[in-house]
Amino acid sequence: MAEFVGAIDQGTTSTRFMVFDHSGAEVARHQLEHQQVLPRAGWVEHNPVEIWERTSAVVQTALGKARLDARDLAAVGITNQRETTIVWDRRSGRPLHNAIVWQDTRTDAIAATLDRDGRGDVIRHRAGLPPATYFSGGKLQWILDQVPGVREAAERGDALFGTTDSWVLWNLTGGPDGGVHATDVTNASRTMLMDLETLDWDDELLGFFGIPRSMLPRIRESSAAAAAGPYGTTRVLGPFGGEVPITGILGDQQAATVGQVCFAPGEAKNTYGTGNFMLLNTGTEIVRSKAGLLTTPAYQLGDEPCVYALEGSIAVTGSAVQWLRDQLGIISGAAESEALARQVEDNGGVYFVPAFSGLFAPYWRSDARGAIVGLSRFNTNAHLARATLEAICYQSRDVAEAMCADSGVQLEVLKVDGGVTINSLCMQIQADVLGVPVSRPVVPETTALGAAYAAGLSVGYWADTEELRQNWREDTRWEPQWSEERRAEGYAQWKKAVERTLDWVDV
What we know:
Blueprint lengths: L3 E7 L3 E7 L5 E8 L11 E2 L1 H19 L6 E8 L5 E4 L9 E2 L7 H9 L2 H9 L8 H11 L3 H7 L2 E4 L1 H9 L9 E3 H4 L5 E2 L4 E2 L1 H7 L8 E3 L11 E2 L11 E7 H8 L8 E5 L3 E8 L10 E6 L7 E8 L3 H11 L7 H6 L9 E3 L17 E3 L7 H27 L6 E4 L6 H11 L3 E4 L4 H14 L5 H5 L4 E5 L5 H18 L6
Parallel strand pairs: 1-5, 5-14, 9-12, 15-21, 21-22
Antiparallel strand pairs: 1-2, 2-3, 4-7, 6-8, 10-11, 13-14, 15-16, 16-18, 17-18, 19-20, 22-23
Family: Belongs to the FGGY kinase family.
Keywords: ATP-binding, Glycerol metabolism, Kinase, Nucleotide-binding, Transferase
Protein name: Glycerol kinase
């Protein structure tokens, strides 16, 4: 039996490949960033060819460094940035436009129109999502309407749509030469095109956006059912250099939910990456949010029923730290943000609301834009660095409050993962802002681990979810230190700052 399971983690700013052993410990990894294409204000794109090239490179490099090959892998899972939209030519494999990234706001008029004419209520009920620039349906409509020749190609059956999991899967399994065009329930649910109850594309929703059904990938379970077999097999001439079954697909936040072993209703995790994403397992029940959250599949393992979640999606958290580095130049790297912020005891009255792409959960305001408020001559770049870390934590509290309102579940501890969790100050602030302990596992990159778990469960590498629970180990815990008075005052000021960002853009 092969000793390891691999996971491709195709994220917003980089792609990595990781290999795990039976205990869930990391055996190998390699990671490469890709370019962020910013054609104009509010537009964010990626080059799909570059993404595929980076995927191939990280697989080959990680396997090479660890002296592994395809025979050492029992299976491979894929996890990905979710709503990012790619359209490509079925015959040539050539992308017909750059990928439109989930952060992109060019479709705000499409979303506003859906809400005004009542179709938005149908989307909310059927897909569990509000009409928003975040999701794939509007991005796909924009490509069909605005890029010459794409709609004609789609009507002929020559244009394919997918989120980046589908793009990577298609290329791994042969591309124009027999590539598999599929996705899983978690990614399909982020399009505004899938019915939460049937777990299939919905013809009425497709009609709202003018999308031909022939463009869409087949929707499958997140961990391939044994009877149905793998999604596909890697090609001998591909980056793995041999045949490996691809048996797990999960959107990145759902993958982190699996990696954090949140398998029981009421268990929650928060992932800190480019944005923040908090998910609360609600079991097989579809809980429709009244507080600005998303209703979404958490995972579907093999033949078992789909498990659902409430999700709070925050557009800009870790990428706000990148903004300090790349646009303002006040830090040279993300790690420096902690040292700079530690130079001050508090934020000095400064609040930073990084609504660069509008505000996501629980506000859903595409008219908002970023604002730094409370400045005086006393303030320094250290106060801005501290305010940036606090913004990550206050946005997470906004979501936690909404989850409590929808579910009645009070957080007792918050499981955290993702790149920002190496920032100890930020995690301490998170515990202070929430008033509950924050717990980071030994393997903080649980997104890749969750994809590996889904793939391994499918082929029997792991027997069941209980075996996965036994792998989870706490690495660090942060206990709240703020007084209730300081916590309440800080949150009240944060809410005031959020108000200042609204109604900035005419939609």
